[in-house]
Amino acid sequence: MSKKVASLEKISKTYGKDDLTVKALDSINLEIYKGDYLAVMGASGSGKSTAMNIIGCLDRPSEGVYKLNGIPVENLSDDELAEIRNQKLGFVFQQFHLLSDATALENVILPMIYAGIEPEQRLMRGKNALKKVGLSERMNNRPNQLSGGQQQRVAIARAIINNPAILLADEPTGALDSKTTEDVLDLFDKLHESGITIVLVTHEDEVANRAKKIAKFKDGRIVELKVN
C-alpha cells in the first residue's frame, strides 16, 4: 500500500468573529498518498483554496489535525513552517512569480540557496530540472525572453527542485491559452508518471479530468471524492 503523505483530520477554518464569522472549511477529512494526482475542484468560495493553503502550510486550521509525512504541523512555529514549505513542498501558481532580472536557471535554483545546498550541487540539479521540463536551451534566458508556457515550465522546475513530498499547483493553467495548457498538463502527466505526488486546484473540468482523483468542494465541505 502506498505511503500516506498528508492527512487532514476534521479540519475546519474560520475567518472573522462574532456575527462576521465565515466558515471556509467545515470539518473536512482528506488523505493524500505518495504518487497521487489529485484535482481539487469547486466554485469560488467553496473552500478549495483554503484547503490548498493548509496543505501547503501557508495557513493554519482553526480546528482539526493536519499531518505531513506523519507529523502534525498546525502547532509549529512560523520559522518551522517556512522550512517545511522550502524543503517538503513545491508550489506552482497561476501567475509565475519569477524574478524578472534573473535567468531561468537562477530562478530555479533559488529554493536551494535558502536550503543551504552547495553551489555546484545547485547548478547540477537546476540544469537537470530545466531539462526535465524541456527548457535546456533556455536556461540563460530571462522571463521577458520566454513565452507564458515557458515561464510556467520554469516555475514548475523551481517547484520540483527540492524533491518535494507534494507538488501543489493552484490554477496553474489559468493564465495560459488552450494549446499551452495542453502542453503544461502533458508535463504534469509526465511528472506524475515519474512518481511525483501532485495536488492541483482548478475550476475547469478538462484540467481536473487529467488527474487520477477528484475532490469536489462545496460550502467548505468535500461533497464528492472520485477516482478517474
UniProtKB/TrEMBL annotation:
Single annotated GO MF: ATP binding
Domain of life: Bacteria
Record-given protein name: Possible ABC transporter, ATP binding protein
EC number: 3.6.3.27, 3.6.3.32
Segments forming domain ABC transporter: 6-227
Gene name of this polypeptide: salX
Phylogenetic lineage: Bacteria, Bacillati, Cyanobacteriota, Cyanophyceae, Synechococcales
Keywords, sorted A to Z: ATP-binding, Hydrolase, Nucleotide-binding, Transport
Coiled-coil annotated spans: none
Family named by the database record: Belongs to the ABC transporter superfamily.
Pfam families: ABC_tran
GO cellular component, one term: membrane protein complex
